[in-house]
Design goal:
156 residues, alpha+beta, 6-stranded antiparallel sheet, two-stranded antiparallel sheet, elongated
Length: 156
């Protein structure tokens, strides 16, 4: 099979997989590729890098005094928000899967019901108790509404 044919086959396979896993309107953009003969498998191996992206709704990124991102607010995630409790592991997995790298070292200190039937979790850095974030979650849809420094609302 020619490299161009392999590239088209890889693109289709990636697009189909992304559509099944993510859904919605998906865009797959092929990047650099290479094909080489493998003496062990006795066939050509095609490596294809791709970027998968999907348009996301509008959200606000919160910057600190140095113009570094420290959090976000996605107001669209308030839709259909209704209270239901979530376990510690559900909250932890949601935050780890959907947040900035800095939040991966933080620990959940407190979970409770927040405003407008949201779930609020307080995250703290075990090495620096001054680093604290408040996470608001739509528990019915399991979407993060916002991740902000805990004192964000005090400053407004």
């Amino acid at each position: 099979m020619q490299p161009e044919d392999l590239q088209l086959k890889a693109l289709k396979h990636c697009s189909d997989h992304a559509q099944r896993e993510i859904g919605g309107e998906i865009y797959v953009e092929p990047k650099d590729h290479e094909s080489e003969w493998d003496d062990i498998f006795l066939r050509t191996i095609h490596n294809q890098a791709m970027v998968i992206w999907q348009q996301y709704g509008n959200f606000k990124v919160i910057l600190n005094d140095l113009n570094h991102p420290v959090g976000f607010i996605d107001s669209g995630k308030w839709k259909k928000c209704s209270w239901r409790p979530m376990s510690y592991s559900e909250v932890k997995n949601l935050v780890l899967h959907n947040s900035f790298e800095i939040h991966k070292r933080l620990k959940i200190k407190d979970i409770g019901q927040g405003e407008n039937n949201s779930l609020e979790a307080l995250l703290v850095d075990p090495n620096d108790k001054n680093i604290r974030y408040k996470v608001r979650i739509n528990p019915s849809l399991k979407h993060i509404i916002s991740i902000l420094p805990a004192d964000y609302y005090d400053k407004r």
